[in-house]
Amino acid sequence: MIVLKCAALSGSAAFPSELIEGLPVPERRYDIANGEITLDGYAESVLHHDMLTLLSMPDGLYRPMTPSEQNARTQAARLASTVEEVAPVTPAKKQVGG
Description:
five-stranded antiparallel beta sheet, two-stranded antiparallel ribbon, 2 helices, 7 strands, 31% strand
């Protein structure tokens, strides 16, 4: 999986079917969400090819994540996967009499 930052907040990037390293590769489509595009679901050679194609686009439409952006993304994913168990609190019964 490769994640790049994108100037657009949403949308998608599509690639035609083509030969990559001599192997036929089908059409590919990657969604853009929250200013990020995640390249995933294909062989590393295909993802690397698609990443280089996106990074070579004019006007800096796509760029690699900075180390601080990578750290923030990793931290957010870690927090999202953490589940906190909360046990129900049962009120103490009042004793009657004495």
